[in-house]
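Dear H.,

Thanks for agreeing to be a second pair of eyes. The structure we're designing against is below in token form, covering all 218 positions.
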């Protein structure tokens, strides 16, 4: 393995934490199909541009943004039912997911880290994360998986990444987080971690390094 695979200045990184959607896999299109279907049922159109606001955001908050877009309101029980309906459609779409949905370099980079003795964690807002990892055939490459069912505060709160670092038994300052959302970059930094952004600097200010996919880490 290369000496400093992360190519970051300062203290050597001892652990890597990955966001799921947008970093390891592109499930945004399935989220979009399901939200669009819900919007259609509610009587309005939800565009791809509208969908950008949902990336990295929790399911409950995503629904609020969708309702805002359509100029609608719901009580708590209606919201719970609508979110459940969207999720059932989303999970149905996920059944078509397989290894080919992995973003470039994902498996290879995880394997390089494993070979180099660098522990790997997952820190995702998605409550479907374990199922998605299973479908992608990469569950076995992680030492810790923290998902939306294990946190009470969504990104940009650092809870998901701090819990992950704790399970990996690595101090936050020695972990690097790979993220594609602004909320996620903020969460990593608030948690005292290093952040590598998958995306462009103008959209994701504040990271230490920018890559277009994990392929750039190979
Ligand atoms: P679920 P990440 C996030 O995953 C997605 O980016 C976001 O669009 C989604 O609303 C959220 O998970 C919740 O997902 O409905 O499956 O619980 O980027 O944090 O891996
Ligand atoms: Mg993401």
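And this is the sequence the design step returned. I haven't edited it by hand at all.
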């Amino acid at each position: 393995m290369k000496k400093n695979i992360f190519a970051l200045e300062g203290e050597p990184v001892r652990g890597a934490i990955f966001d799921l959607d947008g970093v390891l896999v592109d499930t945004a299109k399935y989220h979009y199909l399901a939200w669009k279907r819900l919007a259609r049922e509610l009587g309005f159109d939800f565009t791809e541009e509208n969908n950008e606001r949902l990336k990295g955001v929790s399911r409950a908050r995503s629904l609020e943004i969708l309702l805002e877009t359509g100029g609608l309101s719901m009580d708590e029980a209606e919201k719970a039912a609508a979110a459940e309906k969207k999720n059932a459609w989303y999970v149905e779409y996920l059944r078509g997911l397989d290894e080919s949905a992995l973003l470039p370099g994902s498996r290879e980079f995880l394997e390089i880290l494993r070979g180099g003795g660098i522990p790997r964690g997952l820190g995702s807002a998605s409550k479907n994360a374990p199922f998605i990892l299973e479908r992608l055939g990469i569950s076995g490459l992680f030492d810790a998986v923290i998902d939306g069912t294990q946190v009470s505060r969504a990104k940009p709160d650092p809870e998901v990444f701090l819990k992950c670092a704790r399970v990996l038994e690595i101090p936050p300052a020695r972990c690097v987080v790979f993220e594609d959302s602004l909320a996620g970059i903020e969460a990593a930094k608030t948690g005292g971690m290093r952040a590598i952004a998958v995306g462009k600097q103008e959209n994701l200010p504040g990271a230490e390094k920018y890559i277009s996919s994990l392929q750039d880490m190979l």
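Two observations from my side: The chain is about 40% helix and 10% strand. Residues 35 and 41 are 10 Å apart (CA to CA).

Warmly,
E.
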